[in-house]
Design a protein that fits this description.
single chain; alpha+beta; nine-stranded mixed β-sheet; four-stranded antiparallel β-sheet; 34% helix; globular
Length: 452
């Protein structure tokens, strides 16, 4: 699957900018992709965090900074829980961070002493205690993330690259940002199936959901793993497949064990996945639909920084984050709403479809209805009775991502003098994806080779 087909499969069918591609590669080393989480309080998780001599505060929840490399957030939390001999449910993250990066984020751990963390030795994971809190942190505590990313192997001379960056910044300033797609990691770059499994869950097609999860191969997968998946798809022998599936396919083996003990119980097999993972499956399908709505709006030449009658407008708080105050624009409110968008007090929003969300109206509403009819789902589909804990009411999401504090540095590539490198530093509000910014700038021909 080339980049265009892969991105089309996750609903990213357009670019917001016309600036030519920089090309290049990211993530050649974890240090080339650094993420620092920022809380609403203004506190920043630093990758250089060091242990504090005195851990103050009161409460049952120990606020810590988790620095990791080579592990996604869920895997890191599982390893920490195992090392501390506690349930992973006692550890709460603020946001989720990618595995292929050097990341610093906040977590809280319930009922643990700082001295226990000092004894913990985990490769690629460091946890630094900060203070005790009365309540755990959650996604509501998050403000956004600071990024420092190096793009290497750019086949442009420094002068040409500098001019291209100037054009890119000017274009995004005119637009008000870049299209606020859900990024590649939401779906899996090497194995973009999360939303496909989620679609089957939403449609109560539990057998198909399990088969998709268990048998869809990755773009870079061992022969043993591919062979095991082909065997299960053909034979449907869960007990034999348990002997064939590699040990590192932890969640697949959990489902297979259930099917070995309870033949044909596909709903039960899905429920063996942690609730966080099951929620992510449904959320990924919602994200795919949002990406489709956004792509189609651009393709139909409807603006992302202007509303028409029937569109939704979202109030923006003083920090620049969208609020829960959302209203549909009536004919008499169009001019006022567009003034609010120009002043950055409001933003055009599209629905992230769930059982509590209504379609837009007008041309945008027609786009949304057409896509949902094609998919064979309705907003009510997202109340999933047999697995009610993963039901989702939905929400609204701005169409544009505002890139803040954008700084660049162009250099001659130290590993190849005939090429250039580009270092980017910027801040993104929560629920925005740095890879979406990189996609607009790099416009990669091959996502995998480009480091996405």
């Amino acid at each position: 699957m080339d980049t265009r087909e892969l991105e089309k499969s996750i609903g990213m069918r357009v670019y917001g900018t016309e600036t030519p591609s920089t090309g290049g590669r990211v993530r050649t080393a974890p240090e080339d992709f650094v993420v620092k989480e920022v809380l609403r309080s203004g506190e920043i998780a630093d990758v250089e965090s060091t242990a504090r001599r005195v851990v103050g505060g009161e409460g049952d929840f120990l606020l810590c900074i988790l620095v990791k490399s080579g592990y996604d957030t869920f895997t890191a939390l599982k390893r920490i829980a195992r090392a501390l001999h506690v349930s992973a449910k006692r550890i709460s993250p603020c946001g989720l961070k990618d595995a292929n990066a050097l990341t610093a984020q906040h977590i809280t751990i319930r009922h643990v002493e700082p001295s226990h963390l000092a004894k913990m030795k985990l490769k690629g994971v460091r946890v630094t205690p900060i203070r005790f809190l009365e309540t755990p942190i959650s996604a509501k505590s998050l403000f956004g993330n600071r990024f420092k990313i190096k793009i290497r192997d750019i086949e442009l001379c420094p002068d040409r690259l500098n001019n291209l960056i100037v054009d890119f910044i000017a274009e995004t300033d005119r637009l008000g940002g870049v299209p606020n797609f859900y990024g590649h990691q939401r779906f899996g770059t090497l194995r973009p199936i999360t939303h496909k499994v989620g679609k089957h869950v939403v449609k109560r097609e539990f057998e198909q959901a399990v088969l998709e999860y268990l048998t869809e191969p990755s773009l870079r997968e061992s022969f043993a793993s591919k062979n095991a998946k082909r065997n299960f798809l053909k034979e449907r022998d869960a007990r034999r497949s348990l002997r064939l599936y590699p040990r590192n396919l932890t969640y697949e083996r959990l489902m297979l064990q259930h099917l070995a003990d309870h033949e044909g119980d596909y709903l039960g097999a899905l429920k063996r996945l942690p609730s966080r993972i099951r929620c992510l499956l449904v959320n990924a399908y919602q994200s795919f639909l949002f990406n489709e709505f956004l792509s189609e709006r651009v393709l139909q030449k409807l603006p992302l920084n202007q509303v028409y009658e029937g569109d939704y407008v979202m109030e923006i708080d003083p920090k620049g984050l969208p609020t829960d105050i959302v209203k549909m624009v009536e004919a008499e409110d169009v001019e006022s709403a567009n003034g609010g968008i120009r002043d950055k007090r409001q933003a055009l929003g599209l629905p992230v479809i769930g059982y509590g969300i209504q379609f837009s109206k007008g041309r945008q509403g027609a786009i949304e209805k057409c896509i949902l009819d094609r998919e064979g789902v309705t907003p009510r589909s997202f109340y999933i009775g047999p697995m009610h804990e993963v039901s989702s009411p939905g929400k609204y999401r701005p169409t544009l991502m505002n890139i803040r504090e954008f700084e660049t540095q162009v250099e001659q590539d130290e590993t190849n003098p005939e090429k250039s490198s580009l270092t980017l530093e910027f801040f993104l509000p929560k629920e925005s994806y740095a890879t979406v910014v990189l996609r607009e700038l790099m416009k990669p021909f091959d996502l995998i080779e480009s480091g996405f």
